[in-house]
Design brief:
Layout (H helix, E strand, L loop, with lengths): L1 H20 L13 H4 L7 H7 L2 E15 L2 E15 L6 E7 L1 E3 L2 E3 L12 E8 L5 E4 L6 E3 L5 E2 L4 E2 H11 L2
Parallel strand pairs: 3-7
Antiparallel strand pairs: 1-2, 1-6, 2-3, 4-5, 6-7, 6-8, 9-10
Length: 172
Protein backbone atom coordinates (compact mmCIF):
# COMPACT_ATOMS: atom_id res chain seq x y z
CA UNK A 1 0.00 0.00 0.00
CA UNK A 2 2.86 2.34 0.88
CA UNK A 3 4.51 1.60 -2.48
CA UNK A 4 1.24 2.31 -4.36
CA UNK A 5 0.90 5.65 -2.55
CA UNK A 6 4.48 6.58 -3.41
CA UNK A 7 3.95 5.68 -7.07
CA UNK A 8 0.71 7.68 -7.23
CA UNK A 9 2.28 10.70 -5.53
CA UNK A 10 5.30 10.65 -7.87
CA UNK A 11 3.06 10.32 -10.92
CA UNK A 12 0.89 13.21 -9.74
CA UNK A 13 3.97 15.42 -9.24
CA UNK A 14 5.24 14.57 -12.73
CA UNK A 15 1.84 15.27 -14.28
CA UNK A 16 1.57 18.64 -12.56
CA UNK A 17 5.09 19.59 -13.67
CA UNK A 18 4.43 18.56 -17.25
CA UNK A 19 1.10 20.41 -17.38
CA UNK A 20 2.83 23.67 -16.49
CA UNK A 21 5.88 23.26 -18.71
CA UNK A 22 4.62 21.70 -21.94
CA UNK A 23 1.81 22.25 -24.42
CA UNK A 24 1.71 19.31 -26.77
CA UNK A 25 -0.75 17.13 -28.66
CA UNK A 26 -2.98 14.93 -26.47
CA UNK A 27 -1.81 11.79 -28.29
CA UNK A 28 1.84 11.04 -28.79
CA UNK A 29 3.11 9.61 -32.08
CA UNK A 30 3.13 6.08 -30.66
CA UNK A 31 -0.61 6.29 -29.85
CA UNK A 32 0.08 6.74 -26.14
CA UNK A 33 -1.56 9.60 -24.31
CA UNK A 34 0.88 12.19 -23.12
CA UNK A 35 0.86 12.94 -19.41
CA UNK A 36 0.10 16.58 -20.26
CA UNK A 37 -3.19 15.64 -21.90
CA UNK A 38 -4.23 13.66 -18.87
CA UNK A 39 -3.24 16.29 -16.33
CA UNK A 40 -5.48 19.02 -17.67
CA UNK A 41 -7.41 19.77 -14.55
CA UNK A 42 -8.35 23.29 -15.50
CA UNK A 43 -12.10 23.43 -15.22
CA UNK A 44 -13.76 23.79 -18.62
CA UNK A 45 -17.36 24.64 -19.42
CA UNK A 46 -19.40 22.84 -22.08
CA UNK A 47 -18.72 25.55 -24.65
CA UNK A 48 -14.93 25.31 -24.20
CA UNK A 49 -15.02 21.52 -24.40
CA UNK A 50 -17.24 21.57 -27.50
CA UNK A 51 -14.85 23.97 -29.23
CA UNK A 52 -11.83 21.80 -28.34
CA UNK A 53 -13.39 18.46 -29.33
CA UNK A 54 -12.97 17.26 -32.90
CA UNK A 55 -15.26 14.26 -32.39
CA UNK A 56 -18.44 13.90 -30.34
CA UNK A 57 -20.31 10.61 -29.97
CA UNK A 58 -23.04 8.88 -28.00
CA UNK A 59 -22.35 5.23 -27.29
CA UNK A 60 -22.10 2.36 -24.85
CA UNK A 61 -19.01 1.05 -23.06
CA UNK A 62 -18.40 -2.46 -24.40
CA UNK A 63 -14.92 -3.43 -23.18
CA UNK A 64 -11.91 -2.29 -21.17
CA UNK A 65 -8.40 -3.59 -21.66
CA UNK A 66 -5.55 -2.44 -19.44
CA UNK A 67 -1.86 -2.90 -20.19
CA UNK A 68 1.53 -1.87 -18.90
CA UNK A 69 3.75 0.18 -21.21
CA UNK A 70 6.59 2.60 -20.65
CA UNK A 71 6.30 2.63 -16.88
CA UNK A 72 2.55 3.37 -16.87
CA UNK A 73 -0.69 1.44 -16.98
CA UNK A 74 -3.11 2.48 -19.72
CA UNK A 75 -6.66 1.36 -20.40
CA UNK A 76 -8.30 1.22 -23.79
CA UNK A 77 -12.06 1.65 -23.51
CA UNK A 78 -14.07 0.30 -26.46
CA UNK A 79 -17.22 2.35 -27.10
CA UNK A 80 -19.94 1.01 -29.39
CA UNK A 81 -21.04 4.15 -31.25
CA UNK A 82 -24.78 4.77 -31.34
CA UNK A 83 -24.58 8.23 -32.91
CA UNK A 84 -21.82 10.46 -34.24
CA UNK A 85 -22.74 14.02 -33.30
CA UNK A 86 -19.68 15.71 -34.75
CA UNK A 87 -16.58 14.56 -36.58
CA UNK A 88 -15.98 11.22 -38.24
CA UNK A 89 -15.32 7.74 -36.91
CA UNK A 90 -14.14 4.65 -38.75
CA UNK A 91 -16.63 1.85 -38.14
CA UNK A 92 -19.04 1.51 -35.26
CA UNK A 93 -16.51 1.50 -32.40
CA UNK A 94 -14.12 4.10 -31.00
CA UNK A 95 -11.30 3.36 -28.57
CA UNK A 96 -10.75 5.90 -25.81
CA UNK A 97 -7.40 5.69 -24.06
CA UNK A 98 -7.06 6.69 -20.41
CA UNK A 99 -4.12 6.60 -18.04
CA UNK A 100 -4.66 4.11 -15.23
CA UNK A 101 -6.07 0.65 -14.75
CA UNK A 102 -5.24 -2.75 -13.33
CA UNK A 103 -2.74 -5.26 -14.66
CA UNK A 104 -2.43 -8.36 -12.49
CA UNK A 105 -2.00 -7.23 -8.89
CA UNK A 106 -0.79 -3.76 -9.88
CA UNK A 107 -3.34 -0.95 -9.99
CA UNK A 108 -2.66 2.60 -11.14
CA UNK A 109 -5.27 5.19 -10.20
CA UNK A 110 -5.14 8.68 -11.70
CA UNK A 111 -7.24 11.61 -10.48
CA UNK A 112 -8.90 13.31 -12.19
CA UNK A 113 -9.45 10.80 -14.95
CA UNK A 114 -12.51 9.63 -16.86
CA UNK A 115 -13.96 6.47 -15.33
CA UNK A 116 -15.98 4.04 -17.44
CA UNK A 117 -18.27 1.16 -16.43
CA UNK A 118 -19.22 -1.71 -18.70
CA UNK A 119 -22.62 -1.17 -20.37
CA UNK A 120 -22.58 2.53 -19.37
CA UNK A 121 -24.18 4.80 -21.97
CA UNK A 122 -22.08 7.92 -22.52
CA UNK A 123 -21.88 11.21 -24.37
CA UNK A 124 -18.21 11.86 -25.17
CA UNK A 125 -16.36 14.98 -26.30
CA UNK A 126 -13.14 13.62 -27.78
CA UNK A 127 -9.85 14.68 -29.34
CA UNK A 128 -8.23 12.54 -32.02
CA UNK A 129 -4.94 12.89 -33.80
CA UNK A 130 -5.08 12.19 -37.55
CA UNK A 131 -2.29 9.58 -37.37
CA UNK A 132 -3.82 7.73 -34.40
CA UNK A 133 -6.66 5.28 -34.00
CA UNK A 134 -7.31 6.25 -30.37
CA UNK A 135 -9.13 9.15 -28.76
CA UNK A 136 -8.69 11.16 -25.56
CA UNK A 137 -11.52 12.63 -23.49
CA UNK A 138 -11.47 16.44 -23.66
CA UNK A 139 -10.37 17.96 -20.36
CA UNK A 140 -8.96 14.70 -19.03
CA UNK A 141 -12.30 13.62 -17.59
CA UNK A 142 -14.66 16.52 -18.07
CA UNK A 143 -15.78 15.58 -21.58
CA UNK A 144 -17.31 12.27 -20.44
CA UNK A 145 -20.99 12.34 -19.51
CA UNK A 146 -23.27 9.51 -18.37
CA UNK A 147 -26.63 9.20 -20.14
CA UNK A 148 -29.34 7.45 -18.09
CA UNK A 149 -32.21 5.23 -19.27
CA UNK A 150 -34.47 8.29 -19.61
CA UNK A 151 -31.93 10.03 -21.92
CA UNK A 152 -30.89 12.51 -19.24
CA UNK A 153 -27.25 13.60 -19.18
CA UNK A 154 -26.49 13.18 -15.48
CA UNK A 155 -23.64 15.67 -15.07
CA UNK A 156 -25.42 18.42 -17.03
CA UNK A 157 -28.94 17.84 -15.68
CA UNK A 158 -30.47 18.17 -19.16
CA UNK A 159 -31.85 15.80 -21.78
CA UNK A 160 -29.49 14.22 -24.27
CA UNK A 161 -31.16 16.20 -27.08
CA UNK A 162 -30.58 19.48 -25.22
CA UNK A 163 -26.94 18.61 -24.60
CA UNK A 164 -26.42 17.71 -28.27
CA UNK A 165 -28.09 20.94 -29.38
CA UNK A 166 -25.81 22.98 -27.09
CA UNK A 167 -22.68 21.13 -28.20
CA UNK A 168 -23.49 21.68 -31.87
CA UNK A 169 -24.32 25.34 -31.27
CA UNK A 170 -21.07 25.91 -29.35
CA UNK A 171 -18.90 24.14 -31.89
CA UNK A 172 -20.04 26.22 -34.88
Amino acid sequence: MKQLFSILFALFAVLVFISFTHAQSPLAENNQLTEEALSRNVEMNLQEMAMQANTTVVGTVMDRKSYYKGGHIYSDIAISVEEVIRGEVNGDTVVVQVLGGTVGDLEMVVFPSARFSLAERVLLLLEKEPASSKYAVVGGHQGKFTVDAKDKVQELGVSLNEAIFDILEFSE
